[in-house]
Amino acid sequence: MRLAVTGKGGSGKTTVSATLARVFAHRGHEVNALDNDPNPNLAAALGVSIEDAARLRRVPREDLLEERVDESGAAILRLTRPFDEVVDQYGVRGPDDIAVLTLTGLLGAGQGCICGQHVGVRELLRELGQGQPGRTHILDMEASLEHLSRGTVRNVDALLVVVEPYYRSLVAAGRIVPLAGELGIDHVWLVANKVRTGDDVAEIDDFAARHGSEVIGRVPFDDTVVEADRRGMSLIDHAPTGPAVKAIEAIADRITSEIGEAAMVGG
Ligand SMILES: Nc1ncnc2c1ncn2[C@@H]1O[C@H](COP(=O)(O)OP(=O)(O)OP(=O)(O)O)[C@@H](O)[C@H]1O
Ligand SMILES: [Mg+2]
Asked: Distance, CA 151 to ligand 2 centroid (Å)?
């Protein structure tokens, strides 16, 4: 299964991605946690040590994918070798044996755009859906809408849109949801995060109703998240039975029931 997590800056994408990755790994999935934020911090949120995170190197597209010609004569990007070999070379193993990999990164100050990397991620996701069964791939996206406008997430099975109960966060989601629809993504679900009151719940539910989208779960505002972040720890290690982790476990349950356990661990 290929699952990407998007939303406005600071909405909780990395917290949700990392915790979902750990929850699925606890449940026996082989998880690849793929950082697609050029300002990456998924490794830290997963509980990877600072020393190990420092060994992460962005995978160059030319070392990941090569151009081939398909049966119809069209050029197509294919994996250069089994994805595990790429992970071993460029990634690190985190807690619960989660493979962590950085897929996008800045080229340096004044060094231009990274649109080629977006194409690489899009084609990697297509490849992972075809020849790499038995894995759960979780992608933590950057806050910009570029992964939607460039179609980077076109080939995911599900997109989680993390929203907070305030106007500008919902406006951002109001841009994301239709773009995701245009890309033809099978499942686009909202995650209501940092929810404190019944009014917060109602505001996000109302937004979902107006946009024809579904709230797959609600994560309360939880001081254990703040504290874990302050200590540089993964949330699930810091507060494994806290309200936020419980809520994200419930989201994992929902994803599993919607997509199907067999599809998630077997293809
Ligand atoms: N449920 C929650 N309760 C309290 N604080 C939260 C919750 N979820 C996330 N936070 C806090 O919100 C901040 C942003 O979280 P996070 O880094 O996961 O967001 P993000 O969407 O990945 O941000 P960015 O756009 O910078 O990548 C962090 O300080 C985090 O600890
Ligand atoms: Mg983030």
From this structure: 19
